[in-house]
Amino acid sequence: MDLILYGSPLSPFVRKVRACMLEKGLDCELDPVSPFDPPDGWRKLSPLGRIPVLRDLAVGKEGPDGTLADSSAICVYLERLQPEPRLYPADPFAHARSVWYEEYADTELAVRIGFGIWRTVVVGPLNGQEPDWDTAEATVREKLPRSFAYLEEQFAADTPYLTGTEPGIGDIAVTAQLIGLRHAGFGIDAAAYPRLAVWLERMLSRPSFTSLIAEDRERLGSHSRL
Ligand SMILES: N[C@@H](CCC(=O)N[C@@H](CS)C(=O)NCC(=O)O)C(=O)O
After folding, report:
1. Distance 106 CA to ligand 1 centre (A)
2. CA of 51, closest atom in ligand 1
3. CATH of the domain at 60
């Protein structure tokens, strides 16, 4: 096996990279580095101190050689390494749209769900802290409707995925973040956001995500409500 992925499997960014690998049939060794207690020299691999980082042993075995920081850079590399199935649409505009949805997931959704929900009622309690349901519920009530309404509009053409008939990097990145919401016990109101709700179920039933969710459940135990 030539690929090592450094990062906690509960990170949505690690989940995104692993989903891409599973969709492409790529295998990797997972080294569960925590960004909050990293190994010596971690900043040489991850200049921003974040996870995930990928190492391709065929490129470099030690230090920063053969490593890539940032889930988006890693996913672009995986696409070049294993072009099929394609996760970046062939059409130039659809390709760029898919990258935009990835960016939207990695910034807007990551901040809203990560800080407002995931840390307050899942990871905090997993580490012995009291859950903060007030913050989580306020996030769902006040912050997420705008994101859900935006995503709902993106399915106006009635395509099964964000940028066409096949799932792309945008679909995977958004799903990787929304799984955190589902672990916390919150969902998408199908009456208010029907296309988004159906799309999410479609994404969650893909073998890549069912296997990752099964692993999450094992790690989270009763802290998962999914
Ligand atoms: N843009 C980065 C974001 C990665 C990220 O924020 N990872 C979090 C864990 S979910 C992290 O490492 N946080 C530690 C920190 O920011 O110090 C990517 O796509 O890989």
Report:
1. 9
2. 12
3. 3.40.30.10
Integer Cα distance of 184 and 192 in angstroms: 20
Strands 29-31, 3-6: pairing kind: parallel
The model scores a pTM over 0.90:
yes
Given a cut of 90, whether residue 46 has pLDDT beyond it is yes
Q: How far is the CA of 180 from the centre of ligand 1 (A)?
A: 15
- State whether 71 and 111 are in the same domain: no
Query: What is the extent of the structural domain holding 116?
Result: 92-223
From the CA of 50, give the closest atom in ligand 1.
12
Does the beta carbon of 217 lie inside 6 Å of ligand 1?
A: no
How many percent of the chain have pLDDT more than 70? 100
- Residue 222: which residues within 8 A CB-CB, separation 6 or more? none
Whether 106 is in the pocket of ligand 1, judged by its Cβ within 6 Å, is yes
In this prediction, residue 158 has a pLDDT band, given cuts at 50, 70 and 90, of: confident
Residue 225's alpha-carbon distances to 110, 160, 181, 219, in angstroms, are: 19, 26, 10, 12
Q: Give the whole-angstrom CA distance, residue 60 versus residue 198.
A: 42
